[in-house]
Structures are given as C-alpha cells and as structure tokens.
Amino acid sequence: xxxxxxxxxxxxxxxxxxxxxxxxxxxxxxxxxxxxxxxxxxxxxxxxxxxxxxxxxxxxxxxxxxxxxxxxxxxxxxxxxxxxxxxxxxxxxxxxxxxxxxxxxxxxxxxxxxxxxxxxxxxxxxxxxxxxxxxxxxxxxxxxxxxxxxxxxxxxxxxxxxxxxxxxxxxxxxxxxxxxxxxxxxxxxxxxxxxxxxxxxxxxxxxxxxxxxxxxxxxxxxxxxxxxxxxxxxxxxxxxxxxxxxxxxxxxxxxxxxxxxxxxxxxxxxxxxxxxxxxxxxxxxxxxxxxxxxxxxxxxxxxxxxxxxxxxxxxxxxxxxxxxxxxxxxxxxxxxxxxxxxxxxxxxxxxxxxxxxxxxxxxxxxxxxxxxxxxxxxxxxxxxxxxxxxxxxxxxxxxxxxxxxxxxxxxxxxxxxxxxxxxxxxxxxxxxxxxxxxxxxxxxxxxxxxxxxxxxxxxxxxxxxxxxxxxxxxxxxxxxxxxxxxxxxxxxxxxxxxxxxxxxxxxxxxxxxxxxxxxxxxxxxx
Length: 526
Ligand SMILES: C[S@@+](CC[C@H](N)C(=O)[O-])C[C@H]1O[C@@H](n2cnc3c(N)ncnc32)[C@H](O)[C@@H]1O
Description:
The chain is built from 18 helices and 20 strands. It is an alpha/beta fold. The chain folds into two domains: 267 residues, Rossmann fold, CATH 3.40.50.150; 197 residues, no CATH class. Strand 1, helix 6 and strand 2 form a beta-alpha-beta unit. Helix 1 runs antiparallel to helix 7 and helix 6 packs parallel to helix 7. About 1% of the residues have low confidence. S-adenosylmethionine binds next to helix 6, strand 2 and helix 8.
C-alpha cells in the first residue's frame, strides 16, 4: 500500500516542474551537485533496509544533502506501508533528520517533511522533524567532534539514506580542514558524506546510498575504502548498465552504483551484486573475501557482474605475479602537453622528436609519425601535435625510445575496451628520444625496455578480454591508473614470453583470447 502524501513527494521528485521550481538552470544545479533521485531508485534504496531493523521503538533517519526530500519520502512510504500491514508493531517514533545547504530548496523540503510526518502520524507513529539548513560536513563534524568543538555525540542514527553532492573538495577549504580534524582525508564530497554518515550510525545501523563508482579503486579513495571496509559489511550493490541510466534526464556522466550496508565489523560471507534494470535485476552472489581481498592493502572493491564474473575474477586473482615481481615498473607519461605548448608541433622538424598520444596505439603497437613528417597518416590525429622540440625546457621530460608497453590512461565512452595496450618498437623511432604524453601509462624496466617476447606477451595479456573484464570489476570509470596496474596480477615471465612468441594477429581479439585460453586456461567468451 502506498501512503498518498509520500507518494506525492516521490512524484514531485520525478517531475520536471519540481526541477524548475527552484529556478536554477541545469548548469547551475550541476555545478552545485544537485541531481535528484528518481523515485524507482529512491524506493529501491529504501526497500533494502531490513524489515527487522525498522521494527524497533525508535528510529532516527538521516538524509544528508536532502534536496527536496525524495529519499526520506521513500523510506517513510515504505515504513507507513509496513505499518499498515501490521509488520512494524514495535515502532513508536521516528526522527527525520534532513540537511540541505541550498536555501532555495528549504521551503519545498519543509513542506515535504511535513507531508511525511502527517503520513506517519496517521499510522500512529510520532515524528520529530529535524530540518537543518547548512553544511552537513560542518554539522556532522560538530556532532562527531574532531577536537574542535568540545563534546562528542554518541552515534545515534539508525538509518542513513544518501544521494550526496558530487564535487571536489579543495585542498585548502574549510571542509577539508574539518574532515582532517576527524582524521578523514578525501577529495570528493560524496565520499565525505558517506564517511560521516557511517560514523554517525549506531552499531548495527544501516546505510543505503547512490554514489559514483569511483571510490572502488584508486589512491584518492584509499583511506575512505579502508575505513568503510573495516567498519561495515555490505549486503547489496546494484550497478547500472549505462552511465546515463540512473539520472538520464540530468546527464550525469559518472557511473553510479547503489549499495546497502550495515555498520558492524563482523564478517559476512556473501554479497549480492545486481545489474540491469531495478525491476528485473540480474543477480550474482559473491563471497566477501572476493569482494575485497583480505590481504589487499589498497582494499580495492571488486564488483563482479555477469554470468562469467566469478570465473574471470578467479582466473586473474590466482595468477602468480604482481608487476614488480616481474622486475617491471609502470609509470605515467611525463609530458603534460599544455605546460609545454610552445614546444609542440604538428610536424616533425629537425629539432623535434615524436610525441606519443593515446591514439598512436593501434592493434597492439605504437604507430610512429610518417617519415614524410606529415603526421600519422590518420585524419583524427590532425588536431593533435605529433612532435615536441628538444630544448632546455622539454629535455627532462623526454625519454630514450625503448621497447615499452604503452597503455591508454583514458578510454572514450564509445570504446569497447578499457585496457588498450601497444608495444613501442624503438627501431620505429630511430632509437632516439621520444615524448610520452600524460594520457598514457608505460611499462618499463628502470626506463629501459623489455625483451621482444616479454613486451609482446604483456601487451597481449593486457589486450585480452579476460584482463579487460577483470579490470571492469573494480574500476567503474574510464581511467586506468598506474596504481590499478600495479594491483593487477600477471602470469609469470616465462608464460608471458610464451604468449609473446605465439604467432597471431594482434588486431584479432578472438585470436588473443584463444591463445590466452589455450596457454593458460583463461575463460573464453566466444
Ligand atoms: C545530488 S543532490 C541529491 C538530493 C536528494 N538527496 C535526492 O536524492 O534527490 C545533493 C544535494 O546536496 C545538497 N548539498 C550540497 N552540499 C551540501 C552540504 N555541504 N551540506 C548539505 N547539503 C549539501 C545540494 O544542494 C543538493 O540538494
């Protein structure tokens, strides 16, 4: 049964009218991280709270960055429906704590919270509305006390539901300083919101959220992940198939996930990961120690979806080597083009050396500029410089060409693969200096090259479907960080050389995958 008042609030969250009633353009809202949760997602997040956890005398619901209150409304809607069907006999009172920074939303939020309160009171539940206009960061740090305000509140929140703002936090900002006072180091507001809400949860309290997937890997979210994994157990995760699925209308381009967790450090054996539509999701269950490997210091979160997810993960995670065990390092291309603009050129002149961008990787190799100095013979390349002048300013950023394996750091949305690698043959570059642009990572041995067989084998391994699928399990964005490549597992050197010596066409994905399966027993995806 749906309570009419809360259904109205939820419908409001879906309506264009509401979006425009606050008289803000899409750009202004995007700047402020104001993307509103559509009602099916709000209902899903609210629906994940355990019925048992809601059946207690007193609930305290936290909605930080509440916007119009759609998430609170979804929880209230569920609670009233459960109550009507006699399922929450113990429930006597609820505190609805909502934080919103933007004064433009406050009147609507106040109205909506009143509608929620009316719905609850109708089913015999007392309500305390705690609407706070201001910064949740400020308020939560004050409540938790970073030693700044003299006094610590015991965590009292029983349920937190979040669609937090997505924005970078400047290094010298007050927000950063406040977070640091609690020992929290993070550069994005969404992680700060989830982190603070988790700290405000009482033991056994539950948290549901929709957030970008970017926290699952990478150095910027390492501290957050470690704390998250140490303090909570995950129950469910939903991954959207496409980037625009969650907030289609609002053109949010990050890949988003929904998750539900409980604050407690006890181990839980299985996590349900789903994908596809919310009405009809495809689910897999994965063991907690595969979700986050207990011995991984990075605490990378692996979100495996699809029927072959476990097979892919098991194959890569049981490979014998980390990259340093192969004596190989991975670094980011040192040439930052906009800093050396005056030394870049569309043609390869006498004082110039080739400058390599991601698009120079084609079918497993790095394409050198054409000898007639007219570029790369590719129309798309025309826009980018192909050369960098050797001078006092640039010399320190250039490297002697050697047999490196280059890999793109960013894939475009249209690209099928995230991992796109190519071998650089130093003979194509007259064994001279080269510039490797910052959108590339490269594998090397103390800046020297690899053997032919090892470079080819490593490149083919990275270009295989199994490696790409594994990578997607823990990396939801289009970036391929050097840290991720260091955390990957690789076959041993002899096996990579064997793969490198195998006769095959590097433009043929099926041939690479077949070799991986014949040589190493990798799962095949034919
Ligand atoms: C992504 S929107 C989500 C709104 C709402 N929770 C929903 O699901 O529809 C994030 C909201 O957080 C608010 N916000 C941004 N920074 C904030 C802060 N420091 N404290 C409290 N709210 C903030 C924004 O104004 C915006 O309304």
